[in-house]
Amino acid sequence: MLRPVNGIVAVCRVVSQVYEDNESIWGKDRYPLRVRIEVVPDLQRDGRNPIPLSILFGTNSGGEVSVEPFLKNVWITAVSLEQFESVKRISAD
Predict the structure, then answer these.
(1) Is residue 41 part of a domain?
(2) What is the spatial distance between Cα 91 and Cα 42, in angstroms, rounded to a whole number?
(3) What one-character DSSP code corresponds to residue 36?
(4) Does the pLDDT value for residue 63 go beyond 60?
(5) Angstrom distance (rounded) from CA 86 to CA 93
(6) 19 Cβ partners below 8 Å, 6+ apart?
(7) Phi, then psi, of 78 in degrees rounded to 5
């Protein structure tokens, strides 16, 4: 059984144009507009050592990560160049 991970376990790049596919993935939910992605090998971690979410989203004055509600439980999201560079720096350590 998969356990939730509080962090980033992989950074991927989009390697295709958007295409439509109505084949079922992940149960009953439908995601007809898709792109192909590939993992950036140097930016992949396992669930025991994820990249902290604070690298992308920062922390508030109490030291907690403040993630926008619409991003909770999101598997894939776009990141800015600045966020990507931060992830690369932490992954190099």
Answers:
(1) yes
(2) 7
(3) -
(4) yes
(5) 11
(6) 33, 34, 35
(7) -75, 150
Instruction: Give how many domains the chain has, as a whole number.
Output: 1
Q: Could you tell me the residue range of the domain that residue 80 belongs to?
A: 10-92
Beta-bridge mates of residue 3? none
The long-range contacts involving 54-58, CB below 8 angstroms and separated by at least 24 positions, are 55/8, 55/83, 55/86, 55/87, 55/90, 56/8, 56/83, 56/86, 56/87
Beta bridge partners of 37: 14
Assess contact for 84 and 90: CB atoms under 8 A: no
Please indicate, yes or no, if residue 80 is contained in any of the structural domains. yes
Domain for residue 73, yes or no? yes
pTM, two decimals, is: 0.58
Residue 19: the pLDDT is: 92
